[in-house]
Amino acid sequence: MPELQPKQHALKCGFVSIVGRPNTGKSTLLNYLVGEKVAIVSPVPQTTRTAVRGIFTDKRGQIVFVDTPGWHAGRDGLDRFMNKSCQNSLEGVDAVVYVVDTSRTVGVEEHQIARRLKSVKVPVVMALNKIDLKGDRIGQYIELWEEVKGQKIDEITNFVMIPVSGRAGTQTDKLLDILFEFLPTGPFFYEEDVVSDMPQKQLVSDIIREKLFLLTREELPHSIAVVVEEMRPVKGKTTHIRAVIFVERDSQKEIIIGAKGQMVKKVGTLAREELEVLLGNKVFLELHVKAQKNWRDDHGMLADMGYIFE
Ligand SMILES: Nc1nc2c(ncn2[C@@H]2O[C@H](COP(=O)(O)OP(=O)(O)OP(=O)(O)O)[C@@H](O)[C@H]2O)c(=O)[nH]1
Ligand SMILES: [Mg+2]
Predict the structure, then answer these.
(1) Beta-strand (E) ranges in the chain?
(2) Which CATH number covers residue 295?
(3) Binding site membership of 137 for ligand 1 (Cβ less than 6 Å)
(4) Model-level pTM greater than 0.85?
(5) How close is the Cα of 21 to the center of ligand 2, in Å?
(6) Does residue 14 line the site of ligand 1, with CB under 6 A?
């Protein structure tokens, strides 16, 4: 006689895309939900440049989140790639989390995003984010959604709103509850302990770029890209990482290097500290800075940087 197996409950499992304008806190929310840093975060708009998966699993089931670059108006090659990543992330998902920043007023950019999202067929959850800042603009976002949908908020189907703080973790579990309600049952896509599927080289280059974004000002971050050229173990104890920081102009190269190399040294120290924790290994980080005019619009360069669809 075969042994009786305990009855398996069908678990929920599905894909959820996280979209919104730049800087609304999408990546911060993803990291909180997943419980680990899987996406880089900075105060600079357009920090996230590629779709990043973060996987949440518990007894309710599994949610594969897709964090996306902030939807924005730019028109060069990198802008087009980023906006296309947002658009693509809406295909084949089971629900969409539309993250808005309640500490900022609704502007033209937000109207454009809302219009793009109004015809999404799957359920939309509007995450009214950064409520810890006690901004009083929730009403504006309700009006915006009513306007684009042409309906009163309580008549709109397949739609839920929830105030949250991705930084403080306010109502994030409630958000998960709402999302699980919308998901189908099915087998998991990832092992239960997996939180990310990002290739290691991309993660490393993103971490270096995050430090650069934290330390540079104004337009400079948008001119920066980081490519990890080599990662190899040395004597089993140290990982040697060689990366190139690209900027667009020689004057920017000077800023990144800084007086007596101070700036690039600081970036290197901050990145190395985080990489050592991540890799569980000593890290020797070699950083080079190169000026590469117009890389943001150069198809070949963008492809090398991983900013092009196959
Ligand atoms: N006070 C507060 N700040 C937040 C919250 N969530 C994110 N932030 C801050 O908002 C800024 C942007 O956060 P990100 O998570 O990088 O935002 P994003 O939407 O992923 O930005 P892009 O990738 O550029 O589109 C950072 O300075 C965060 O620390 C929040 O809930 N409360
Ligand atoms: Mg982001």
Answers:
(1) 12-19, 52-58, 61-67, 95-101, 124-129, 159-163, 225-234, 238-247, 282-291
(2) 3.30.300.20
(3) no
(4) yes
(5) 10
(6) no
Ion ligand 2: protein residues whose beta carbon lies under 5 Å = 26-27, 47-48
Range of the domain at 31: 12-182
Ligand 1 pocket check for 109: Cβ under 6 Å: no
Q: Is the CB of 25 under 6 A from ligand 1?
A: yes
Q: Are residues 117 and 250 in the same domain?
A: no
Last residue of a domain, one of 147, 182, 217: 182
Per-residue confidence (pLDDT) for residue 106, from 0 to 100: 97
% of the chain exceeding 90 in pLDDT: 94
Q: Which of 135, 150, 182 is the last residue of a domain?
A: 182
Q: Are residues 69 and 172 in the same domain?
A: yes
Selection from 143, 180, 138, 130 nearest residue 26 by Cα: 130
Give the number of domains in the chain. Answer: 2
The residues, any chain, with a CB within 8 Å of residue 271's CB and separated by 6 or more, are 207, 208, 211, 285
Q: Whole-angstrom Cα distance, residue 302 to residue 157?
A: 40
